[in-house]
Amino acid sequence: MSLIIGKSVKVKEINCNAPIKIIYYLGKKGKIKGKKIIPGICVVPIIEFEDYTRVWILPEELDIL
User: Is Plastid given among the entry's keywords (predicted)?
Assistant: First the structure.
């Protein structure tokens, strides 16, 4: 998945170990606002939702719109 700032995405699935805060956004649309580097693992997008909440979510859990 390309991390293009401003691209619209939809949360399609959530890891079972995710906190309640993130599970609330399952099925919701947001925009990529930045990226987070997780050392030794990968680069993940930071998603901003309509309520201005920002969370990072693994790329395989997102659909590009």
Answer: yes
